[in-house]
Design a protein that fits this description.
The chain is mainly beta and 527 residues long. It has helices at residues 4-20, 459-469, 478-484, 488-525; strands spanning 21-22, 35-38, 58-61, 66-84, 92-99, 106-113, 121-141, 146-156, 175-177, 182-188, 191-198, 207-213, 224-235, 239-244, 253-255, 262-268, 275-281, 291-301, 316-321, 324-327, 331-335, 339-345, 352-355, 361-363, 366-369, 376-382, 387-395, 402-405, 408-411, 415-417, 427-429.
């Protein structure tokens, strides 16, 4: 008897360890680890994080629960893709740590949070790491202290290097200052961008600085510089300033990208300076939050790279709509009564004429209030022989977001009926809706319940979940519904999933009943 007890303990310990280790991860994309180890789970095992199935998950309760991914060898990576359970209702907080020995870890993302309201995979970037181990250190979520990961992909480093789009002025490495956390190259569509991050509050001028040495690049006073940059704001507010000698309030060109994702301009280099500095902000002027932005397609050139032979500086249409400057479009739509100014880039370098749709020649900075008579194509011609056109479409008076077409009327923006319009919803209604039919698109209908490989919870697991949480598996709690409501498409999917699972339970019961009836007949025939 004494020998049996240690053996049982050994077997139980070995079984528990095997359940905490996944030796067959199979991610949809990215790097394939040799194994995954977790410190705890509730029956939703670690292999579920890398099985390509968004209906399974790893779950562990409590702050400090972790999942360790062993890549087998030192590997370069700079991005994780993670899908969280109920991410439309909860925001998850966690750390990402790396190690080469599995014991000593360095934090690369600390106390970061997923984006509330985003279903599916979310992307988390960081400077390129060279490590064998990645550890997810969970801190629960905004509703409770559970950690629930449906899928996690580890993306290999692209090894791109951010640079100037023009080869005549090479960029030095960016320097993070004024509280910024990091500035690193990141792959973007068609190239390499610069990602600026600041995770702290109270640092409204956090930025990266790129200093252009005028003497080293043969730039002298009176030269014209053409600049163009695209920005994508993930959080915070993107902004760019071109300043002299790294000094505030000396801006030669600036934009906070409030009216456009592109800033295009040109300026004359003043005398008495030694550098022109690009200040790239992550949360411009915002003290209450940090920020994360991506700058790409940055070009600083001694001539316009978009020029097509019509002159050394090229020509780009520029227009101000109700106080906001934008550029580059071939067609714009405004409503009657909108204040417009037409011009062209590069400013202060070229001289332009503007021919209106009626054939009248207007000068630079042509200013007017739009009426139906102003609709048509405007032709902009520079003194260097460049020609561009801009079509202006003028809609009826009132809200410029209402646009008419042959297909009916379209409103560009979010709508509130009996309630304020909400940022995350196209239509918000405070009241009842009477309609004949509602159609909700859903690309993940639960036919997967009847497919091979679906892990149907045992009735004992269902009972345990009900006892612990007071509701069925994958069904939101009453508290969550009271706080956030339900989404019709997702809720109908969940309900059908439960019905299909119930059907499988009934079919199992039917088979069992039929087997018992056969055995009963055999027993009666033996009497």
């Amino acid at each position: 008897m004494r020998s049996i007890i240690p053996l049982c303990f050994f077997l139980i310990t070995a079984w528990a360890h095997s359940q905490n280790t996944c030796s067959t991860p199979n991610p949809d994309t990215g790097i394939d680890p040799i194994n995954i180890e977790v410190d705890q789970h509730d029956g939703n095992v670690p292999c579920n994080m890398m099985d390509g199935n968004l209906t399974t998950r790893w779950s562990a309760q409590g702050t400090g629960r972790w999942a360790l991914f062993n890549l087998g060898a030192v590997t370069s990576f700079d991005q994780l893709e993670i899908a969280f359970l109920y991410s439309d209702l909860r925001s998850y907080t966690f750390d990402i740590e790396v190690s080469n020995d599995g014991t000593n870890f360095t934090t690369v993302l600390g106390n970061v949070s997923s984006t509330l309201g985003v279903l599916g995979m979310q992307t988390f970037n960081f400077p390129t790491q060279n490590a064998q181990y990645i550890r997810y250190f969970g801190r629960g979520n905004s509703v409770n202290n559970w950690n629930n990961i449906m899928e996690l992909n580890i993306i290999a480093s692209s090894s791109c290097t951010f640079s100037n789009g023009s080869t005549d002025i090479p960029f030095p490495a960016p320097v993070v200052t004024a509280g910024g956390d990091s500035a690193f190259s990141t792959s973007v569509s068609g190239g390499c961008g610069l990602r600026i991050t600041n995770q702290d509050t109270g640092e409204p001028w956090a930025r990266a600085n790129i200093a252009i040495d005028l003497a080293a690049n043969n730039i002298v006073a009176g030269d014209s510089l053409f600049v163009s940059v695209d920005a994508t704001t993930i959080s915070g507010m993107a902004a760019i300033q071109f300043v002299t000698d790294n000094t505030a309030n000396t801006s030669l060109s600036t934009s906070n990208f409030s009216g456009s994702s592109n800033h295009t301009d040109s300026f004359i280099v003043p005398s008495g300076i030694s550098t022109i500095d690009l200040w790239l902000f992550s949360n411009y002027g915002q003290s209450g939050n940090g920020g994360e932005v991506i700058f790409e397609n940055i070009t600083v050139s001694k001539s316009n790279p978009n020029s097509t032979g019509c002159g050394p500086n090229g020509l780009t249409t520029e227009y101000r709509i109700d106080g906001t400057w934008s550029s580059g479009a071939s067609s714009i739509t405004v409503s009657e009564g909108t204040e417009l100014i037409l011009s062209a880039l590069p400013n202060h370098v070229i001289i332009i004429d503007i021919e209106d749709p009626g054939g009248t020649i207007r000068s630079d900075n042509y200013t007017f209030t739009a009426t139906a008579a102003d609709a048509g194509v405007y032709t902009i011609t520079s003194n260097e022989g460049c020609v561009e056109t801009l079509e202006i479409i003028v809609t009826g008076s009132g809200d410029p977001n209402w646009v008419g077409s042959n297909n009916g009327i379209q409103y560009i923006g979010n709508v509130g009926i009996g309630a304020a319009a909400q940022a995350n919803y196209r239509l918000a209604v405070d009241g009842t809706i009477h309609t004949r039919e509602v159609r909700v698109d859903n690309d993940n209908w639960p036919d997967y319940v009847f497919q091979d490989g679906y892990e149907l919870p045992s009735l004992e697991q269902v009972q345990q979940h009900i006892n612990e949480h007071g509701h069925l598996i994958n069904v939101p709690s009453a508290e969550e519904v009271a706080a956030h409501g339900v989404e019709l498409g997702e809720m109908n999917k969940v309900l059908l999933e439960k019905i299909e699972e119930l059907t499988l339970y009934l079919l199992e019961q039917h088979k069992l009943q039929a087997e018992l009836e056969r055995e009963l007949i055999l027993l009666e025939n033996q009497r």
